[in-house]
């Protein structure tokens, strides 16, 4: 098996001399499917400290959500299988822990918010009850005490008339309010790590900003480590401290938010940033990255991004690049990271007229 | 809520009127003379025949007969009587307890067995017990009631001697074999229904949330998974109870239970329209009332349903 172990000290986000809150080392997750073994995560490394926000950025199928579910221990197994690696919470490996000890951390020390609050809340139980359940089960509070706590949490996340609304059911709330209830439930027991899987994707744009602000405020207040899983570059720019860009179950690039946006060191990140539509663009087409992510059951040799990369060489097609530093605190898994970082990489594919590789709708349209 | 119930109760009136009219028309359409059938081979004088025809309004046109029948019910709660002069209400009072007991014992058996088997099959999906439930439920649904009834009589009645084979003289134990026979189909359907609903529910996002909240597996299943998956089962059980209260001709005949099913069958043969219509009206009434109860229960189980 090829290891993508990074040298000690270079795991994205490591602070010297401090045990991270959460540390993922060389994590590998597979899915047994009829089409073969799909390698959803191939040697993932990152770490998270208290008060930090790590954004995991990637398109659909890049392994973001699988990462979140694996950390939470709620991955469906089978078909999922953890093929290797470690997930350390305060230095203790979660993967070698027995289920009962792990359950006691789940929701208590490591909590999660899901994308679709309507389907993620139980439709037949009052929201207050669902929040109170955390206090009753994990803290052993009586029904009444737990209810009081639940109302407090609802007030904390900004639900108007919390006292009266605690008896209402999820379908009686608006999308933004439902996501606030999810958040209240997740932070109820003051967790160390909060994983938010696309927390604002299902919401209106105006509500998105409010919910992100709330998350950010709560993070500061409780000094939580926040893992924000998203494909939305706009959301990330506002709240993240560090970004890990995932592709085909690997981290392609990791650095702090200014570095990533200012000087991306990986062609994939460049492509993502270029694909953001700009208001000052004079017409033209959207600059999407051409092609599709590779099938997880049939990975190309070498760099997983090579079939779509405009800088790809023969080396990229045979040898897989390891995650390595290109600058202080900036890691990239590209053979030509330095050149990409400096903006001096040589294109090996003819760039399309409007910029980077793109989908040209007019050419694909039938005559 | 109250307005909803009142509206539903008012809807009962046309439903009952139309259903009784249909049944009345069907009985009316049976060929042959009921009085002659009553007399059988014995000679009957014209005078007696005329009196009887008069007494039972048999010479009136169909709609007039029907109207007189309904008028009797509304004004004097008179459901009519048999040709022997026995009131229909009397017959129902005598027969209903047998059918009702059978229905309730059946209900308990099929609800317990169906739901428990369904839950276990879902929890041990693709394992031995699940396969066993899948195969045995197909057999239960597919085998004719007749065959199941005779098999149970043979095995548990004759060979093992655990339960009486026929009649109602041994208290509840008289009802065990007929109830098992009657429960077979519904138990099979219920087990499959609960299994698939629970599997769906266990795959749902809110069950994943409950797991992510650090709840024990048992709590996740009982508090979060099961409740949602039992809603369709309640509807099914309600509809089934309603149909069982109408009596089962086959089961009551196999086990010789003097219930409503046997009575309806005998009355149809004897062309005793009033008895048939009386029992069927009762059956329709059970059906609409139980349906209303199920609908109200549905609202209790699923808060997303509101009554307007």
From TrEMBL, chain A:
<dbReference type="Pfam" id="PF08352">
    <property type="entry name" value="oligo_HPY"/>
</dbReference>
<dbReference type="GO" id="GO:0005524">
    <property type="term" value="F:ATP binding"/>
</dbReference>
<keyword id="KW-1003">Cell membrane</keyword>
<keyword id="KW-0547">Nucleotide-binding</keyword>
<dbReference type="GO" id="GO:0016887">
    <property type="term" value="F:ATP hydrolysis activity"/>
</dbReference>
<feature type="region of interest" description="Disordered">
    <location>
        <begin position="345"/>
        <end position="367"/>
    </location>
</feature>
<dbReference type="InterPro" id="IPR013563">
    <property type="entry name" value="Oligopep_ABC_C"/>
</dbReference>
<dbReference type="InterPro" id="IPR027417">
    <property type="entry name" value="P-loop_NTPase"/>
</dbReference>
<dbReference type="GO" id="GO:0005886">
    <property type="term" value="C:plasma membrane"/>
</dbReference>
<dbReference type="GO" id="GO:0015833">
    <property type="term" value="P:peptide transport"/>
</dbReference>
<feature type="domain" description="ABC transporter">
    <location>
        <begin position="22"/>
        <end position="273"/>
    </location>
</feature>
<dbReference type="InterPro" id="IPR050388">
    <property type="entry name" value="ABC_Ni/Peptide_Import"/>
</dbReference>
<dbReference type="InterPro" id="IPR003439">
    <property type="entry name" value="ABC_transporter-like_ATP-bd"/>
</dbReference>
<comment type="similarity">
    <text>Belongs to the ABC transporter superfamily.</text>
</comment>
<keyword id="KW-0813">Transport</keyword>
<keyword id="KW-0472">Membrane</keyword>
<keyword id="KW-0067">ATP-binding</keyword>
<protein>
    <submittedName>
        <fullName>Peptide/nickel transport system ATP-binding protein/oligopeptide transport system ATP-binding protein</fullName>
    </submittedName>
</protein>
<dbReference type="InterPro" id="IPR003593">
    <property type="entry name" value="AAA+_ATPase"/>
</dbReference>
<dbReference type="InterPro" id="IPR017871">
    <property type="entry name" value="ABC_transporter-like_CS"/>
</dbReference>
<dbReference type="Pfam" id="PF00005">
    <property type="entry name" value="ABC_tran"/>
</dbReference>
Automatic annotation (TrEMBL), chain B:
<keyword id="KW-1133">Transmembrane helix</keyword>
<dbReference type="InterPro" id="IPR045621">
    <property type="entry name" value="BPD_transp_1_N"/>
</dbReference>
<dbReference type="InterPro" id="IPR000515">
    <property type="entry name" value="MetI-like"/>
</dbReference>
<feature type="transmembrane region" description="Helical">
    <location>
        <begin position="229"/>
        <end position="255"/>
    </location>
</feature>
<feature type="transmembrane region" description="Helical">
    <location>
        <begin position="102"/>
        <end position="123"/>
    </location>
</feature>
<protein>
    <submittedName>
        <fullName>Peptide/nickel transport system permease protein/oligopeptide transport system permease protein</fullName>
    </submittedName>
</protein>
<keyword id="KW-0812">Transmembrane</keyword>
<dbReference type="GO" id="GO:0005886">
    <property type="term" value="C:plasma membrane"/>
</dbReference>
<feature type="domain" description="ABC transmembrane type-1">
    <location>
        <begin position="96"/>
        <end position="298"/>
    </location>
</feature>
<dbReference type="InterPro" id="IPR035906">
    <property type="entry name" value="MetI-like_sf"/>
</dbReference>
<feature type="transmembrane region" description="Helical">
    <location>
        <begin position="175"/>
        <end position="194"/>
    </location>
</feature>
<feature type="transmembrane region" description="Helical">
    <location>
        <begin position="12"/>
        <end position="30"/>
    </location>
</feature>
<dbReference type="GO" id="GO:0055085">
    <property type="term" value="P:transmembrane transport"/>
</dbReference>
<keyword id="KW-0472">Membrane</keyword>
<feature type="transmembrane region" description="Helical">
    <location>
        <begin position="135"/>
        <end position="155"/>
    </location>
</feature>
<dbReference type="Pfam" id="PF19300">
    <property type="entry name" value="BPD_transp_1_N"/>
</dbReference>
<feature type="transmembrane region" description="Helical">
    <location>
        <begin position="275"/>
        <end position="301"/>
    </location>
</feature>
<keyword id="KW-1003">Cell membrane</keyword>
<dbReference type="Pfam" id="PF00528">
    <property type="entry name" value="BPD_transp_1"/>
</dbReference>
<comment type="similarity">
    <text>Belongs to the binding-protein-dependent transport system permease family.</text>
</comment>
<keyword id="KW-0813">Transport</keyword>
């Amino acid at each position: 098996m090829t290891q993508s172990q990074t040298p000690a000290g270079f795991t994205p986000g490591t602070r010297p001399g401090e045990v991270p809150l959460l540390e993922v080392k060389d994590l590998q997750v597979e899915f047994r499917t009829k089409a073969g073994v799909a390698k959803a995560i191939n040697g993932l490394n990152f770490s998270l400290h208290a008060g930090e926000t790590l954004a995991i950025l990637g398109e659909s199928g890049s392994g973001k959500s699988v990462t979140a579910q694996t950390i939470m221990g709620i991955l469906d197994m089978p078909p999922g299988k953890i093929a290797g690696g470690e997930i350390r919470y305060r230095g203790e490996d979660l993967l070698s822990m027995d289920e009962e000890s792990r359950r006691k951390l789940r929701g208590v020390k490591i909590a999660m918010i899901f994308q679709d609050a309507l389907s993620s809340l139980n439709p037949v139980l009052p929201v207050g009850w669902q929040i109170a359940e955390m206090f009753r089960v994990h803290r052993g509070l009586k029904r009444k005490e737990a209810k009081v706590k639940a109302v407090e949490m609802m007030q904390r996340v900004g639900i108007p008339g919390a006292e009266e609304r605690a008896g209402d059911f999820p379908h009686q709330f608006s999308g933004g309010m439902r996501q606030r209830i999810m958040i209240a439930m997740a932070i109820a027991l003051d967790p160390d790590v909060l994983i938010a899987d696309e927390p604002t994707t299902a919401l209106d744009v105006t509500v998105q900003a409010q919910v992100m602000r709330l998350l950010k405020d709560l993070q500061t207040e409780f000094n939580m480590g926040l893992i924000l899983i998203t494909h939305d570059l706009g959301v990330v720019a506002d709240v993240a401290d560090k970004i890990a860009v995932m592709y085909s179950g690997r981290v392609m690039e990791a650095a702090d938010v200014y570095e990533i946006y200012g000087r991306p060191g990986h062609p994939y990140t460049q492509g993502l940033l270029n694909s953001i539509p700009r208001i000052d663009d004079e017409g033209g087409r959207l600059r999407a990255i051409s092609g599709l992510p590779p099938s997880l059951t049939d990975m190309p040799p070498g760099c997983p991004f090579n079939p779509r990369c405009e800088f790809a060489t023969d080396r990229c097609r045979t040898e897989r690049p390891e995650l390595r530093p290109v600058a202080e605190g900036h890691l990239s898994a590209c053979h030509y990271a330095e050149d990409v970082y400096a903006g001096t990489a040589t294109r090996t594919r003819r760039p399309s007229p409007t910029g980077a590789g793109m989908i040209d709708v007019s050419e694909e349209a039938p005559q | 809520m109250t307005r909803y119930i009142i509206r539903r109760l008012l809807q009962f009136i046309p439903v009952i009127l139309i259903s009784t009219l249909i049944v009345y028309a069907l009985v009316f359409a049976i060929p042959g003379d009921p009085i002659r059938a009553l007399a059988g081979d014995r000679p009957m004088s014209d005078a007696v025949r005329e009196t009887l025809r008069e007494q039972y309004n048999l010479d009136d046109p169909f709609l007039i007969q029907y109207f007189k029948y309904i008028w009797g019910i509304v004004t004097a709660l008179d459901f009519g009587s048999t040709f022997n002069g026995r009131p229909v209400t009397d017959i129902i009072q005598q027969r209903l307890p047998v059918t009702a007991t059978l229905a309730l014992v059946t209900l308990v058996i099929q609800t317990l067995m169906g739901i428990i088997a369904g839950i276990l099959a879902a929890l041990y999906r693709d394992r031995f017990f699940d396969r066993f439930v899948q195969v045995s439920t197909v057999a239960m649904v597919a085998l004719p009631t007749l065959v199941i009834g005779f098999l149970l009589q043979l095995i548990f009645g004759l060979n093992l001697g655990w339960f009486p084979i026929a009649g109602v003289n041994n208290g509840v134990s008289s009802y065990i074999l007929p109830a098992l026979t009657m429960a077979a189909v519904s138990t099979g359907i219920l087990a499959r229904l609960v299994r698939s609903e629970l599997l769906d529910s266990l795959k749902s996002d809110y069950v994943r949330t409950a797991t992510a909240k650090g709840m024990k597996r048992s709590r996740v299943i009982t508090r979060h998974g099961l409740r949602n998956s039992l809603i369709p089962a309640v509807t099914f059980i309600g509809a089934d109870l309603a149909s069982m209260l109408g009596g089962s001709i086959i089961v009551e005949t196999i086990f010789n239970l003097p219930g409503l099913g046997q009575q309806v069958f005998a009355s149809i043969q004897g062309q005793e329209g009033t008895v048939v219509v009386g029992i069927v009206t009762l059956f329709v009434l059970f059906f609409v009332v139980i349906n209303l109860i199920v609908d109200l229960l549905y609202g209790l189980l699923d808060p997303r349903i509101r009554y307007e």
